[in-house]
Write a structure and sequence with these properties.
123 residues, alpha/beta, Rossmann fold, 5-stranded parallel β-sheet
Length: 123
Protein backbone atom coordinates (compact mmCIF):
# COMPACT_ATOMS: atom_id res chain seq x y z
CA UNK A 1 0.00 0.00 0.00
CA UNK A 2 1.33 3.44 -0.91
CA UNK A 3 1.94 6.21 1.61
CA UNK A 4 0.00 8.70 -0.48
CA UNK A 5 -1.11 9.49 -4.02
CA UNK A 6 0.55 12.57 -5.52
CA UNK A 7 -0.08 14.46 -8.75
CA UNK A 8 2.93 16.36 -10.14
CA UNK A 9 2.09 19.12 -12.64
CA UNK A 10 5.18 20.62 -14.32
CA UNK A 11 5.98 21.54 -17.92
CA UNK A 12 9.59 20.39 -17.47
CA UNK A 13 9.96 16.66 -18.12
CA UNK A 14 13.13 16.46 -16.00
CA UNK A 15 11.20 17.70 -12.94
CA UNK A 16 8.42 15.14 -13.46
CA UNK A 17 10.98 12.34 -13.90
CA UNK A 18 12.97 13.48 -10.85
CA UNK A 19 9.86 13.51 -8.68
CA UNK A 20 8.92 10.01 -9.84
CA UNK A 21 12.45 8.65 -9.30
CA UNK A 22 12.55 10.15 -5.82
CA UNK A 23 9.04 9.37 -4.61
CA UNK A 24 8.20 5.93 -6.05
CA UNK A 25 10.96 4.17 -4.03
CA UNK A 26 9.53 5.95 -0.95
CA UNK A 27 6.22 4.15 -1.63
CA UNK A 28 4.32 7.14 -3.03
CA UNK A 29 1.99 6.62 -5.98
CA UNK A 30 2.75 9.29 -8.61
CA UNK A 31 0.78 10.66 -11.56
CA UNK A 32 2.23 13.40 -13.72
CA UNK A 33 0.97 16.06 -16.11
CA UNK A 34 2.92 18.30 -18.50
CA UNK A 35 0.58 21.32 -18.37
CA UNK A 36 -1.96 23.02 -16.16
CA UNK A 37 -4.79 21.90 -18.45
CA UNK A 38 -3.62 18.26 -18.42
CA UNK A 39 -3.11 18.46 -14.65
CA UNK A 40 -6.65 19.66 -14.05
CA UNK A 41 -8.01 16.85 -16.24
CA UNK A 42 -6.07 14.25 -14.21
CA UNK A 43 -7.14 15.92 -10.95
CA UNK A 44 -10.81 15.78 -11.95
CA UNK A 45 -10.49 12.05 -12.75
CA UNK A 46 -8.78 10.99 -9.53
CA UNK A 47 -8.28 11.46 -5.82
CA UNK A 48 -4.92 12.78 -4.60
CA UNK A 49 -3.45 13.31 -1.16
CA UNK A 50 -1.23 16.07 -2.55
CA UNK A 51 -0.84 18.04 -5.76
CA UNK A 52 2.57 19.55 -6.63
CA UNK A 53 2.25 22.40 -9.12
CA UNK A 54 4.95 24.35 -10.94
CA UNK A 55 4.38 28.08 -10.59
CA UNK A 56 5.54 29.12 -14.08
CA UNK A 57 4.06 27.13 -16.96
CA UNK A 58 2.97 28.17 -20.44
CA UNK A 59 -0.76 28.60 -20.88
CA UNK A 60 -2.25 28.15 -17.42
CA UNK A 61 0.16 29.09 -14.62
CA UNK A 62 0.43 27.35 -11.27
CA UNK A 63 -1.67 29.87 -9.36
CA UNK A 64 -4.51 29.47 -11.87
CA UNK A 65 -4.32 25.68 -11.47
CA UNK A 66 -4.21 26.03 -7.67
CA UNK A 67 -7.27 28.31 -7.58
CA UNK A 68 -9.19 25.96 -9.88
CA UNK A 69 -8.33 22.94 -7.71
CA UNK A 70 -9.32 24.77 -4.51
CA UNK A 71 -12.68 25.76 -6.05
CA UNK A 72 -13.40 22.08 -6.76
CA UNK A 73 -12.00 20.66 -3.51
CA UNK A 74 -11.21 23.31 -0.86
CA UNK A 75 -9.64 20.69 1.42
CA UNK A 76 -7.14 19.53 -1.24
CA UNK A 77 -3.49 19.85 -0.14
CA UNK A 78 -1.40 21.62 -2.76
CA UNK A 79 2.27 22.59 -2.83
CA UNK A 80 3.73 25.08 -5.31
CA UNK A 81 7.17 24.48 -6.84
CA UNK A 82 9.04 27.52 -8.08
CA UNK A 83 12.39 28.53 -9.47
CA UNK A 84 11.28 32.12 -8.89
CA UNK A 85 11.40 32.16 -5.12
CA UNK A 86 10.35 35.71 -4.32
CA UNK A 87 8.34 36.81 -1.32
CA UNK A 88 5.61 38.00 -3.68
CA UNK A 89 5.27 34.56 -5.31
CA UNK A 90 5.29 32.76 -1.98
CA UNK A 91 2.66 35.08 -0.49
CA UNK A 92 0.49 34.70 -3.60
CA UNK A 93 0.76 30.90 -3.47
CA UNK A 94 -0.01 30.64 0.24
CA UNK A 95 -2.85 33.17 0.10
CA UNK A 96 -4.34 31.21 -2.83
CA UNK A 97 -4.45 28.09 -0.69
CA UNK A 98 -1.09 26.34 -1.08
CA UNK A 99 -0.06 24.36 1.99
CA UNK A 100 3.62 25.01 1.29
CA UNK A 101 6.11 25.83 -1.45
CA UNK A 102 9.25 24.16 -2.72
CA UNK A 103 12.11 26.12 -4.22
CA UNK A 104 13.69 24.73 -7.41
CA UNK A 105 16.13 23.21 -7.81
CA UNK A 106 15.49 20.91 -4.89
CA UNK A 107 17.25 17.81 -3.62
CA UNK A 108 15.47 14.47 -3.27
CA UNK A 109 15.79 14.75 0.52
CA UNK A 110 14.18 18.20 0.52
CA UNK A 111 11.33 16.98 -1.69
CA UNK A 112 10.61 14.02 0.60
CA UNK A 113 10.93 16.14 3.75
CA UNK A 114 8.54 18.83 2.49
CA UNK A 115 5.96 16.30 1.26
CA UNK A 116 6.07 14.40 4.54
CA UNK A 117 5.64 17.70 6.39
CA UNK A 118 2.57 18.69 4.36
CA UNK A 119 1.03 15.22 4.65
CA UNK A 120 1.88 14.89 8.35
CA UNK A 121 3.91 11.72 7.79
CA UNK A 122 6.59 10.92 10.31
CA UNK A 123 5.79 13.83 12.61
Amino acid sequence: MSKARILVIDDEEIVRISCERTLVPEEYEIDTAASGKEGLERFEQGEYDLVLIDLKMPGMNGIEVLVNIKKQRPEQRVMIMTGYDTVEHIVEAISSGAAHYLEKPFTPDTLIERINEVLGIGT
